From TrEMBL:
Source organism of the structure: Streptomyces narbonensis
Pfam families with a match to the protein in the record: Acetyltransf_3
Top-level taxon of origin: Bacteria
This enzyme's EC code(s): 2.-.-.-
Keywords: Transferase
InterPro entries: Acyl_CoA_acyltransferase, GNAT_dom, Ribosomal_N-acetyltransferase
Domain N-acetyltransferase: 11-170
Name listed for the protein in its UniProt record: GNAT family protein
GO molecular function: transferase activity
Keyword Transferase: yes
Amino acid sequence: MYAMSLGDDGAELRPLEPWQADEFLAHMDRGREFIGARNGLPDVVTDLESSRAFLRAYAEKAAADTGRIHGIWLADGTLVGAVILRTLDTRSGRAEAGCWLEPAGAGKGLVTRAARALIDWAIEVRGIRRMEWVVAAGNGPSIAVARRLGMTRDGVLRESYAYRGELHDEEVWSVLAREWREAKKQTESESE
């Protein structure tokens, strides 16, 4: 197994796999209300069987090279969130990233750092040319992450997402590989 440091605070990014279903369910239980305010995952992961099934689906995506899931752990070893490649299509060069956190992980920049690592891998290693971020229009924290990642808002899909009996608009944000690389060069030259 491997882990990637997310900075000086000891947080790590690691793959989430079916054998971690207990830990994933405990994380979902701790953050169920907070995560569920903006994300339907708590309605899907409700018990050990559904937790295992969700992680198994991502293990199958990883095996087919069509998606990935990586957990975000605090220095104390607590799983507090995840970043995903919900879709990964190396033929077309497109992927969609996403995320969530429980309250213990919020406000620390963890999602931005984790998403940056995952997106960089998708662009630099897997050859993705367009990374998308699809978010409910009312999800300010996720929109802020898209902005911090240097993404551009492509548009709004009106009433495209039904969630808990209501229709929501979704915003589509994206960054192109050339824009990603240019921003990395700019950041590196500023830090020299």
